[in-house]
Amino acid sequence: MTFNERVRCKGIHTAASLTENKQELWFQEDEMDKIRRSLKKTVKMVERERHEGNDLVRQESDTTTFSLRGLEQHLPAARHETKMRVEDTWDAILGAQDGFLEHAGEYCDNDKIEFLVRSISRQSLEEAQERARQDALEAM
Questions:
Q1: Which residues of 70-81 are buried (b: 16+ CB within 10 A; e: fewer)?
Q2: Confidence label for 34 from pLDDT (cuts 50, 70 and 90)
């Protein structure tokens, strides 16, 4: 076994050594507001461009590309889809509970309801796994 003789180590400063006021290490409220406004502006611009038929997200010919990865929940279509998925899940659970109560009196089969919820949420899991695969490919 041999070691590279040209390895250089870089020291890492502790939070205490950087400042006496640890609050200064975090984003301040005005900085967070500025970041939020900027993100909302980007999302609106991309949505407007998509509506007009332009795809700014992955244009190879342009040096400026936008990634909305992680901002999906701010897109109107995604918000609507999430809302509908939550409502569908609630409807399925409540419908199953009603069905159990009608046919079995007071008894409600929690295992069957758990299976139902897992089945419904499987789609979200598969979508998240696909996004993770796409992220991994982009990182290569």
A1: eeeebbeeeeee
A2: very high
CB burial string 30-67: b at 16+ within 10 A, e below: eeeeeeeeeeeebbeebeeeeeeeeebeeeeeeeeebe
pLDDT above 80 (res 105): no
The Cα 45–Cα 55 span in angstroms is: 11
3-state SS assignment for residue 14: coil
pLDDT band of 68, cuts 50, 70, 90: low
Q: Residue by residue, what is the 3-state secondary structure of 78-117?
A: HHHHHHHHHHHHHHHHHHHHHHHHHHHCCCCCHHHHHHHH
Residue found by looking up tokens 């890492």 in the block: 12
